[in-house]
Automatic annotation (TrEMBL):
<dbReference type="InterPro" id="IPR006683">
    <property type="entry name" value="Thioestr_dom"/>
</dbReference>
<keyword id="KW-0378">Hydrolase</keyword>
<dbReference type="InterPro" id="IPR003736">
    <property type="entry name" value="PAAI_dom"/>
</dbReference>
<feature type="domain" description="Thioesterase">
    <location>
        <begin position="40"/>
        <end position="114"/>
    </location>
</feature>
<dbReference type="InterPro" id="IPR029069">
    <property type="entry name" value="HotDog_dom_sf"/>
</dbReference>
<comment type="similarity">
    <text>Belongs to the thioesterase PaaI family.</text>
</comment>
<dbReference type="GO" id="GO:0047617">
    <property type="term" value="F:fatty acyl-CoA hydrolase activity"/>
</dbReference>
<dbReference type="Pfam" id="PF03061">
    <property type="entry name" value="4HBT"/>
</dbReference>
<protein>
    <submittedName>
        <fullName>PaaI family thioesterase</fullName>
    </submittedName>
</protein>
<dbReference type="InterPro" id="IPR039298">
    <property type="entry name" value="ACOT13"/>
</dbReference>
Length: 129
């Protein structure tokens, strides 16, 4: 999907797959690796935030626009451990012309909510097709 949209890959992530669910939702899947752990052996908060922020941006791209994050908020609810399979799902809850709001949920392989985030995105332009 990223090649078609002429976007660079998210290189901070080790291994992931992106799937457009529809024009309002995007899902990224990945497995927590050793390189994404904090000193306590759990997925680093910055890693989880990067996943969520990336999905927020890709959700807007799926709608046909480019955007940057204006504001974000994340709640860390449960630890993600090495080997956990994560699903990161973004859904647009406000679809304005200049700003959009994306709600992101990160769940593990058991469907347990790891983190919940909200992103206000500023639209910088439309994607030329």
């Amino acid at each position: 999907m990223l090649d078609k949209l002429k976007l660079n890959s998210i290189t901070v992530l080790d291994d992931y797959s992106v799937e457009m669910l529809d024009n309002q939702r995007v899902m990224l899947t990945t497995t927590v690796s050793e390189s994404s752990l904090n000193p306590y052996g759990m997925a680093h908060g910055g890693y989880l935030f990067t996943l969520a922020d990336s999905v927020a941006g890709l959700t807007i791209v799926a709608q046909g626009s480019y955007a940057v994050t204006l504001q974000s908020n994340i709640h860390y609810l449960k630890a993600a451990k090495p080997g956990d399979d994560l699903s990161v799902i973004g859904a647009c809850s406000h679809d304005g012309n200049r700003t959009k709001v994306v709600e992101v949920k990160i769940e593990n392989q058991d469907g347990k909510l790891i983190a919940s985030a909200s992103f206000t995105m500023f639209v910088t332009g439309k994607i030329e097709k």
